[in-house]
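Exercise 7. Given the components listed, write out the predicted structure of the assembled complex. Treat all entries as one system.
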Amino acid sequence: MAKLARSTIRYSKLILIVTAALILFSLFSVRDLRFEDDFTEYVPEGDPEVSFFNSLEDVFEGFQRKSMLVALEFDNLFTPENLATVEEMVQVVETLSEVKSVNALTNMPRVLTTEFGIEVREVMDVLPSTAEEALWLRKDVEEDDQIWGRLVTEDGQGTILSVAFYYEVDEYEAIDRVIEATEPLQGNAEITYFGMPIVQRESARDAQSTMVTLTPLAALALLLILYWGFRSLRGVLLPIFIAVFASIVTIGISAAIGKPLSIISAALPIMLLALVTAYGIHFINRYHEECGHGSCDEAAERTLRVMFFPITLSALTTMGGFMSLLTAEIRPVSDFGLFSTLGIFFGLVFATFSLGAYYHVFTPKAPPRQYLKGQEGKRDALHRMLQAIAFAVTNRKKLVLSVMVALLVFLGLGIPFIEVEMSVEDMMGADHPIIQLLDYFEERFGGTDSTYVYLEADSVRDPYTLREMVRLAHYGDRYHAFGDGSSVADLIMDLNEAFEGWRAVPATRDKVDNLWFFVEDNNYFQGRISDDERSTLVEYRAKEIDSQTLSSEISDFNAFLSERPASVVSAAVTEEGAAEYLAHTVVDDLVIFGVNPFDREAVQKLVLDYIETPLDEFFSPDQAFAQEVAHYMVLEIEDLGFTPEEVAGVLAGWYMNRDEELEVIIEEELGLDEMDAWYLADLLFFAEEQVSASRKVESVRAAVSEKIGGMVFDDSFDFVFYQVLDEVVYMPAQGSDLSLAYRITGGPVINNYITGKLFNQQSRSTALAFLIVFGLLLLQLRSGKKAVIAMIPIALTVFASFGLMGHFGVPLNIATLMVASIAIGAGIDYTIHFLYRWYNEQGQDPAGAIYTTITRTGRGIFLNSVAVAGGIYVLATSNISMLRIFGSLVATVLLSSVVFTMFLLPLILQAEEKVFRNISTKGGK
Amino acid sequence: MKKLVLFVTFMFFVAGAFTASAYALTADDIFDEMEERQAEVTTSRSLGSLLVVDSRGREELREVIMYSQEEDDGTVSTIFRFLSPASVRNITLLSLEDGDQINLYMPAYRRVRRIAGAGRQETFAGTNFTYEDIGGGFEREDYEYELTGEDEENYIIELFPLDPESEYSRQVMKVDKELFFFSRIDFYDLEETLWRVLEVLEVEELEDGTVRFREISLSDVKENSRSVLKLEEIEDDIDLPANFFSVRTIQRPEL
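Answer.
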């Protein structure tokens, strides 16, 4: 130490120059500092859950992570003027080269079933020019679930443009382009933008603002506290400068290596300011003591000799606490660990070498008054308080112990109430602009976030796979995180309705193939199916919910998925057990579609009866039936030059008298040639089957409705009931025709995954912090006993931190999980300084040693802890809830560490001394 | 599906419209010559193949058979049926009145449905191609145009759509100097970014001096997708029964 101190003094000017250069370089680099907070990047890219989510962008072209929403609010959207505004905005945005597609009310494609076939058109083919036309449009879209409540708000005032960008564009720039293009067009509308870059930009702005505005505030708090303690300008400013320099260098390094900071890192300069100031305080405190007891000329070297060891040990243990965070798999935590470790290191260097060099170069004439010999008697209020503590821990041991035990019991009672919470609302705070933005989109348009079920099958085209997609979409409706499910199967059902008459997934592959051909060029369709057609997605709208609910919903949904058949075999409905299984499937689907509770057994029996009833039973040879049959083939009939009514008349007549074949009657009554008559008759027989099938389904629909209390089954139940027509049944079987696998993913799912890791992360980092700090203490104190004693207050501090979290409802999140490690690393400083002084003072009687330790070193500890807490408490004024809570908790926990050090450690040390003395006495005898 | 339909329609509508002789010095002269020398084919039957390459590079080759007829009112009716692969076999499309009415036969459903609602500038069922790209989209009255240059093999004509609703800012057409067919058209979006490219890859010069396209490619540069239609067997002026271009025809197993 002496050599190091001498070298420092010898090269003091060089040290000051190097220090200044480092700070200037860092200041220059800080200009490039960036904040980024993308939770999908919280865990390493190689993490299976995150890499799977990220890989979807490569598998599915339509999986757009780069997108934004533009919300428009009018007094009334449905006026010609306001609709024109929307239309103009859509057209302008569509022309931007960054934009891949815009989905909006004005260009929403609709597949409509018409009498003749399919009409594919945009919702607003022609812009309404009158109030009546606008009102008509409103009535039209009010009935469309895909539009009302999603693209248009329930009150008809707001609408949304969903903008997808090309993969290779810079999302931030693309969003700016959209904003620039749309703002001038807003007319009567209030316009609101949403996109991950907008959220990230807002978060970054807040984090930056927290850093820029609160760091000086923390410095001011420290300044006031230190001035109160030291009554010296240098005593006030120098420790703060040391800490500020350490922060600048740390942040500068982060910027220089291009590593962006996360939101939680905004607390870094304040944390460093508070923690590193302590080193300066200890150094200056001792320096003034040395000055007061002799000449200031050599005080710097003497101080270095004495203080280098404890300050280094203190810094090393604090670094140990932070280093334990480096093992965290959650990137913001490990980054925080890395940069805080670096910051402490630079704090150590500046507080020893640089400060020693400074005091050597700029030696004061005299120390502050209270450090001068003969001034000790005139102690201040702080001294009197420390005297009282010394008195209590030496003369009122039982009382102090009782209070400590009571406090620990109280804190312990809170521990079971700790909850994990990683929702955005919890992290940012309910009143934060980002949360208000999220709330707005959730309230008006059902949310901004998406969840997905990824399906892998032998073929997505298989009817069973498509049906499973429909089931999964409906099953999600019971959850907040899996609402409004949709998939390519919806489009298949729309088209099936146009071709077959009902909105269901056809049971046979050839029908699916036909429909597939029709839609395969569709961007939406193509973008959601993998190249090999073996995987696809069911997409959901996720509402913002708390982590507990989210975890529970994901767990429930996973349980449901695990119960779905992993592989199925197709069997003819006539095969043994197939009809029964089909009935079972129909009943299961009713439950999946949200019909519950009902007498499953009775309904299953009823459905089975219908399945086994042949179509003939639903054939009705009358005029109405004939009309229905003719209308089913309207396009073909008109192509022959007739009306459906004409053909229906012939058909109804034939029903009454079937003496002749139908084609003969058609030839006679409609005057068609033989070939065309045969053609028409064939069409009509086919249509009869279709109409009978439709009647069978309507019959079972009505019967089930009656059975379960009159529930109305609208068209959305076509999927369920039209299965009674299936001639093919998909039954579970191992290693069979078709296998299926499912996986839930999406932003909220990853968030939940990260949340699930928090407890483990915390346990691991806390244990590691204990281990590192204990190892360092063992090395430095060279005594297992001393090291164990030193760990006791800190163990209780960690215990207290958990208790405080439980009692005050502070959840475990990426910020608060670091508190225990910080408490260990930073809180141990107080113990080290205390122990160091105690063992130095052991020459005198225990009470005297305690008195000296508490009143002399205790002063530094107290000032240190108040300064640290005061600085960190400033975070409680941050805009970001997570930082507010983090700051308050760290500060409170560090203060509790002082309480344990000042009150409990003396009791332990006196007890140890007593035991030691007894052993020595007995040994002496 | 629609890509194929539009492609085939394009062959019948556009190929003739821009077939012309080689004496023009102005854009109008070029177009005049092209119109004068249009092939006059009333009925036609073609066998061909269509290669579809999507944005991910996936390729699918389909065999198609096509029939066309110029009606008395000057409009064209077409039928095209897919012969392979098995998943699309016999799916048949009937286009009447220059594509104003399209009927689709799905064999698995045994039913014909009319496809309606697509406007000239709208993509159909999400395809990259619009009706404006094909049917009648190159009527010179719809554009301002000028001959902007020439290279060794082509005249270069720029066309500026008069329709304010057009998705294109301009089209750059290269017209072959020797045979007077357009060899390439570049379509630019409203931001002047190249969007689509139409290229004639193979032509056949008929005895009467007219030119028929044998292979044509449509690319979407933004989407990175491409379709190539190749006609292999072409029979002109064939006898077709009355009402051939009807719903009942396309429901037959064999045309």
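Discussion: Chain A is about 65% helix and 10% strand. Chain A touches chain B at residues 61, 95-97, 109, 112, 114, 116-122, 125, 166, 498-500, 506, 508, 510-511, 513-526, 531, 635-636, 639-640, 676, 679, 686 (CB under 8 Å).
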